User: Fold this.
Amino acid sequence: MAGVSGPGKFSKRTDGLSFESTEYGSGVENAANKAGAPLAKTPDVRGARASEVRAAAQEAVTPLYAPTQRPEEPITSGIPMGAGPGPEVLGMNQPSADTDADRQKLLSYLPALETIAQSPSSSQSFRNYVRLLRANLL
Assistant:
């Protein structure tokens, strides 16, 4: 019987066995598992050098006073007015209160929202939102 193991980093097995030893029992099973399928290869995870990061960042940024990179694209592209495509090109679902069903659903929530807006703990921005919602729905 061996003595007591040391604390922390000085600890070691006192029975003389290692994890992958065949006497321990899991060594044979572990070797069989390794032989059954190839082990995954770890990709190179070394970080990029600071100079490489700076060089990549400078290539991607267009200077402030540089000429436009898209001379044929209208300046209003991406906004819901003017020439060019609107926000629908972003592929995001835009909330719509144009249909009667959506309008009725928002109207059904309005009394509860107004009650919350009148409480002393509600914020001024929430009160303004409820006023705007009420003005647009009624």
About this structure: The first helix runs from residue 26 to 36. The mean pLDDT is 78. The two ends are 87 Å apart (CA to CA).
